[in-house]
Amino acid sequence: MNREAVSFRESIRRTFIRYSMVPVVVVALLVLVIIGFSWTYSVTYRNARENRETAGELKRVTDVWYGMLAEVEWGFFKNGEVLSTNKTYNVLYDSCREFGETGNLVVLSPEFEVLFSSKGTVPYYLTEPQYYDWGILHAVTKAYGRTVTSLAEGNLCIGKGVYSAGVLKCIMVYIIPDDVILRLAGSGERYLAITDENGRIYASNNMILHDTYGKISKEFDKETGYIKAAGKLYYLCRTEIDKGLVVYTVDDMTDYIRVIMLMIGVIVTVFAGIVFITYKSTDASSEKYTEDIRRIEAAFESVSNGDFDVRLNTGSSKEFKTIGNDFNAMVKSLREQITENKELATNVAFSQLKQLESQLNPHFLFNTLDNIRFMAKIDVNAAEKMIVSLSGILRYTIRDTREEVTLREDLNNLQFYLNILQIRFNKRFKYRIDVGEDIMDCLIPKLLLQPLLENAIKYGFGDREKLSVVIRGYQITDRLVFVCEDDGAGIEPGRLKEIRETLGKDTNDTAHYGLYNIHRRIKLMYKGDYGLDIEAREGGGTLVRIVLPRTLKKPEN
Amino acid sequence: MDFLKRYKAIFIMLPVVAAFICAVMLFFKLNFKPERQPDLVVVSPHPTAFVIPLINEFENETGIKTEVISLGTSDALKRIMNDKDVDVLWGGSILTVSSYTDKFYACENPNREHFEERFEAVDDRITCFTLVPSVIMINTDLIGDIEVNGYEDLLNPELKGRIAFANPGKSSSSFEHLVNMLYAMGGEDPEKGFEYVGKFCENLNGTLLSSSSAVYEGVANGEFTVGLTFEEAAVTMLKSNKHIKIVYMEEGVVFTPDGIYVSLESERKNYAEEFVRFMTSENAQRFIAANLGRRSVRNDVTELGLLAPLNEINTISVQKENVIASKDMWIARFERLFDEVNHE
C-alpha cells in the first residue's frame, strides 16, 4: 500500500488517541462484561439459593407434620382406640412448638363422625356429605394409608387414613395454619409461590404468579431459567420436593436490565465525552508539542529559499533547545562561508577579467613593428602614423583600469587598430563601421570589438587578395547587438564546431583565445542570456554576433 | 480509506463490542424456557368461582393437568371451532351450541344412563351438564312492600328505572330471559310475547346493561332493586350473604341445560372423555348441586342446596328449533323495541 507520509503533529496526535482512547474502550467493555456477568450470576445464584432454602424448609416443615400424624397413628394402634385427648395434644404441641401455632388436627371415623378436633371446630369440608367423596377426604381414602397433601377450600391439609387389617379405622386431617405456610412464602425478597404438581398455588407472596383460577400463571409455569412473561424478562427457579409440592421463585429482571442499560448509557456517554475531549485536547496538545518541530521546519525552509538571516528560537525541551542553538550556529557559519565564497569568486572573476582583456596578440605586435621598420625606410609619414596608432593602442590597454567603457571610447581605440591594418594591407583591406549615434554613450566591456577584427583578419584572408569587413551596432529594446561580418574565406566546419563547443565551456584549452575571451568576459560581467555566437560558410564569409545589455554611462557629477 | 486507517483501533473495537452484545443476547435467548404444556385445554364461560373447585378435584382425581381459558359463550364457541389446541368447550346453553353439533365428538360416557330421561335423549355429541334456569333476583332491603312474583309484576310503575337487565345481544343469560319472557308471556306463540317485551322495555326507562355480571352485582350492591339473571348467580350472591331473594317467575320458568362439548379435532380425546365423565359423575354433580348453585342433570342426585325444589316451580318448555332459528331476529327485534320506547 502506498502509505503517505503524515505530519509529525498528526502522528503524535494519533499516538495520543491510540494510547488514551483504546484503553478507555477496553476497560469500559471489560467493566461492562464483568458487571453484566457477575450481576446475572448473582441474581441467578441468590434466586436459586432462596428457592433451595425455601424448598428445604418446606420439606422439613411438612416432614414434621407427617411425623406428627405418624405418631398420632402409632398411639392409636397402641391403644386400639384413639389416643386420649391429653396425649394427642401432647404430640400436637411437641410437634408444632416451633411454629407458635398448633393448627387444627381432626380425626374422623370411617363414617365421618368427628372423633377429635384440637380446635373444637371442624370445617364444613370435613363434615358435609357432598365432601365425603371430594377434596381432602377423597384424597385420603384413595391413598390407602399414605399421607397426602391437598388444598381443601383454600386450606392446605395433610391427611392420612389409619387402616387396620385393610379396614379403615379412622381418618386424620391436619389443617396447616395459614400463618406458618405464609411465613415460608412471604420471607423472600423475590416472587415466590408454593404449588402442587398441577400448579395450584398453596401460598405465595404476590398476585403476579396467579392466574384467575388460583393456579400458577401459564407464563410462569416453566422450568428453571430465563423466561419471558407479559413482555418482561424474569429469572425463574422451580424445585419439586416430594409430597407433590413445588416451589417457584421468580426474579423480575426488568430493573436489573434497566440498571444495566443505564450503566451502558452512562459508560457510553462518558466514553463519548472522553473521545470528544481527547480529540479536542490531542489537537491542542499535539500542536503545542510539535510547535518547535514546525519552527524547525519553517527555519529549514527559509534557509533553502536563500534566507540566511533566520534565527531558530526553540525552548520547549532541552533537546529542542540544543537543536535550535546548533542550527543557529550552523546557519551563522554557513552565512559567513557564503560571504567569503562570494568575495573569493569576485576576486577570481576580476583577476580573470584583467587577464583576459590584456591579451594583446603578440603576433599583431610583431607584425606591426615589422611593418613600422619597413615603412620607416619607404614612407616615414606612414611609419610615424603607425607608431602613433600603436602607442595609442598600448596606452588604451594599459592606462584605463575600468572594465567598462563607452562605445565611443572603444571605437576611438578601434580606429588606431584600423589605421595600422589600413597601412599594413593597403588596398587589400576595406572596412565600414556602422554604429548609430544613439548608442555611442552605452557602456560596453573594454576592448570588445578589436578581437572581432583580429578574428576576421586571421581567418578571412585565407588565399584571398582582398577582404572587406562591416561592423554594425544597434539596439533592440534593451539589448545592444554588434555584428561583424566579412566576405572572407570563412571557417571550415570542423574548426567552427570546435570554436562553438569552446564557447559553451568555462575554461578554454584550445588556442582560440580571441572570441572565447570576449564571450567569457560577457558571461562573467552580465548575468543573463548574453554572449557571442558565430556563423560561417566555407568560402562564404564569417558572421560574429555579440549581444549585451544596454546600459548607459552614469552621468558624472 | 483514510478514515478507516486513521481510526483503525476503533474499527477493531467495533466487532468486539458487537460480539459482546451478541453473546449476551445469545446467553438469554438460549436460556428461555418453554411453558410446561397442559394435558388438556378447556374453554369455558363459567365463572371462576365455579371452575376452581371442579378443576382442582378433576386434576387431583385424574392427574390430568388442565388449562382453563375463560371466555364468553360466543367467543368460547368461536375459539373451539378455530383453535386445534382447545379440546373441550365447557358450558354454553345447548340452544346456542346445537347448530354446531357436527363439529363435536360423541363421547363414551357411562354416566349418561343416570341422566334424567330428557337429558339422556339429546344428541350423542352433546353432553348435558347442569341446569341453569332464569330467575328474578330481588334486593330485599330495597323492595319494600312491592310484590314481585313474575314478569307481569315487573311492569309496576314503581319499579320504573329500577330493573337491571343486560343486552341480550351481549349476554347469553339475558337472551335466555328474553326467550323465557316470549314463551311465558306469549303462550305457545312467542310472537305474542313481544307485546309484553315492549312494555317491559318501557319500564327499563332507558337502562340496558352490557354484561350478566352487571345485573346481579347491581342488585346485590343496591344500584337496582330487581334484576333478571340466572339461578347460579343469584345463589352465589345468597351464599355470600347479600340481602337478596330469588323469585321463580310464576308465568313459567324455562329449564335449558348447558353442556360439555368435545372438539372433533381434539388430539387428546381420551383426556377429554375423562373430563366429561368426571363432570357428569355422581360426586361432581352432587358437589355442584350442593355447593355451586346449579341443578344436576342426573336422576340420582337429589341435593338442592339453596335451590328451590323443581315441583315448586312452574316449568315450561320451548321449541328448541324455533329458538335456534330465531335467535338473531329476536335480539334485533328487542333492540328495536328498546330504542323505540326509550327515544320517542
What is this structure's SSE topology?
The complex is a heterodimer of chains A (557) and B (344).
Chain A: H1 8-79, H2 85-96, E1 104-108, E2 114-117, H3 135-143, E3 148-152, E4 155-164, E5 167-175, H4 178-186, E6 191-196, E7 201-204, E8 225-229, E9 232-241, E10 245-252, H5 254-289, H6 291-304, H7 318-357, H8 362-378, H9 380-399, E11 404-406, H10 407-425, E12 429-435, E13 443-445, H11 450-460, E14 467-476, E15 479-486, H12 493-503, H13 513-525, E16 531-536, E17 542-549
Parallel strand pairs in A: 12-14
Antiparallel strand pairs in A: 1-2, 1-5, 3-4, 4-5, 6-7, 6-10, 8-9, 9-10, 11-13, 14-15, 15-17, 16-17
Chain B: H1 2-6, H2 8-31, E1 40-44, H3 48-62, E2 66-70, H4 73-82, E3 88-93, H5 94-97, E4 104-105, H6 117-120, E5 127-131, E6 134-139, E7 163-164, H7 172-186, H8 190-204, H9 212-220, E8 226-230, H10 231-239, E9 244-247, E10 253-254, E11 257-263, H11 269-279, H12 282-291, E12 295-296, E13 315-316, H13 320-343
Parallel strand pairs in B: 1-2, 1-3, 7-8, 10-13
Antiparallel strand pairs in B: 3-11, 4-11, 5-11, 5-12, 6-8, 6-9
Helix pairs in contact in B: 7-8, 8-13
In summary, what is this structure?
Chain A has helices at 8-79, 85-96, 135-143, 178-186, 254-289, 291-304, 318-357, 362-378, 380-399, 407-425, 450-460, 493-503, 513-525, and strands spanning 104-108, 114-117, 148-152, 155-164, 167-175, 191-196, 201-204, 225-229, 232-241, 245-252, 404-406, 429-435, 443-445, 467-476, 479-486, 531-536, 542-549.
Can you tell me about this structure?
- Helix content of chain A is 51%, strand content 20%.
- With 557 residues, chain A is of the alpha+beta class.
- Chain A has 3 domains: 1-103 and 176-289, no CATH class; 292-354; 358-549, Heat Shock Protein 90.
- In chain A, a hairpin with a 2-residue loop joins strand 8 and strand 9 (232-241).
- Chain A is rod-shaped and about 195 Å long.
- The two termini of chain A are 72 Å apart.
- Chain B is α/β, with parallel strands linked by helices and 344 residues long.
- Chain B has 2 domains: 40-132 and 256-308, 3-Layer(aba) Sandwich (D-Maltodextrin-Binding Protein, domain 2); 134-254 and 317-343, Periplasmic binding protein-like II (D-Maltodextrin-Binding Protein, domain 2, 3-Layer(aba) Sandwich), CATH 3.40.190.10.
- Helix content of chain B is 45%, strand content 15%.
- Chain B has 13 helices and 13 strands.
- Chain B has helices spanning 2-6, 8-31, 48-62, 73-82, 94-97, 117-120, 172-186, 190-204, 212-220, 231-239, 269-279, 282-291, 320-343, and strands at 40-44, 66-70, 88-93, 104-105, 127-131, 134-139, 163-164, 226-230, 244-247, 253-254, 257-263, 295-296, 315-316.
- In chain B, the strands form 3 sheets. In chain B, strands 1, 2, 3, 4, 5, 11 and 12 form a 7-stranded mixed beta sheet that branches. In chain B, strands 7-8-6-9 form a 4-stranded mixed beta sheet.
- The model of chain B has no long low-confidence stretch (mean pLDDT 86).
- Classes of the chains: A alpha+beta (557), B alpha/beta (344).
